[in-house]
Amino acid sequence: xxxxxxxxxxxxxxxxxxxxxxxxxxxxxxxxxxxxxxxxxxxxxxxxxxxxxxxxxxxxxxxxxxxxxxxxxxxxxxxxxxxxxxxxxxxxxxxxxxxxxxxxxxxxxxxxxxxxxxxxxxxxxxxxxxxxxxxxxxxxxxxxxxxxxxxxxxxxxxxxxxxxxxxxxxxxxxxxxxxxxxxxxxxxxxxxxxxxxxxxxxxxxxxxxxxxxxxxxxxxxxxxxxxxxxxxxxxxxxxxxxxxxxxxxxxxxxxxxxxxxxxxxxxxxxxxxxxxxxxxxxxxxxxxxxxxxxxxxxxxxxxxxxxxxxxxxxxxxxxxxxxxxxxxxxxxxxxxxxxxxxxxxxxxxxxxxxxxxxxxxxxxxxxxxxxxxxxxxxxxxxxxxxxxxxxxxxxxxxxxxxxxxxxxxxxxxxxxxxxxxxxxxxxxxxx
Length: 431
Prior knowledge:
The chain has 431 residues and is an alpha+beta fold. It has helices at residues 15-37, 40-72, 77-90, 92-98, 110-135, 144-176, 182-211, 219-243, 246-253, 257-284, 286-296, 303-310, 315-321, 373-378, 399-408, 410-430; strands at residues 322-325, 330-332, 341-346, 349-355, 358-365, 370-371, 385-388, 392-397. The chain folds into 2 domains: 2-24 and 301-430, Jelly Rolls (Sandwich); 38-284, no CATH class. It has a 4-stranded antiparallel β-sheet with strand order 1-8-3-6. A hairpin with a 2-residue loop joins strand 4 and strand 5.
């Protein structure tokens, strides 16, 4: 189809940046709408609860490790370094004071702690997977064996990675405090310590966002969203400690105040993580969301006004999918085997069909018409020809995009089916 090879006009200076900003705004609004629609705040609450159940036995194991290191520290310098890192990174003294873990003299229920860890870690992973099935909808399922084993493996694996990171941080912290290195070298090592912690969190986010969805998102957006989630968690960590005081929770809830404090912090952390996961999905579907709004148009007031402002510009879609056709030029040729769909953004087109040696004019298509979808849906050659009556600007959509649109939007699917039925009726009348 030679018309599809028509060159697109180059965007003006600064238009690319404006289009990128439009895409980010559209993805953000779509993510916020889906976040509320999918009730991810409830998933965040369930995840925070299972996290608290999982964290308690994990910290209990850390306490056992701290006791063992305390014995080794009497004769081993590396054990001293690692012991100091454990207390600094995990705040074991504060957790003991808050009542999350028992005092040293009361640690005795190791078997119960391990059993609780196994059960709660399975609940934690299942809660995250349940949220991801809502965020990244997919009809396929994981193998039964993998789905059963994954919760039992992933938490110990993450725990092991965190312990390794703590050991590395212990070395950096030890050398950073050595006076012989000087102030500049000490500051550099402390900076490396912070960077290492952020990289570990970023790596965990990236792994979760890439591996947990059944349909894996692209690597580059996943890397970006993982960085944004890591930054959000860093801000939450420092902001939570600055504006929220555990003493106030202890004054209200008594001995459980520390547990409530940690539970609320985990809830906010899960909210942030799920929002960025939803944003990643919206970022990969931003063209689909924008095309849906363009095809269906505005549908009301209130929130739709905001959507009208954010999705009002079509320049980004035109730059990506737009093609220009001169008057008389053919968009679709009858009998052709191409599968692209066309959306008439501007201009008018005529529909023609051959009946033997005679070609009849079936009708006229105005702006806002979607055409060419019949060949894709029926997997057959084009049933009619479409030619530009005036100068036409059309969005040419590949078959994969049309499939995404129909999966994403039920109203748009109904409109396509209705349009297809009307077109078949007109063709039968003409015949």
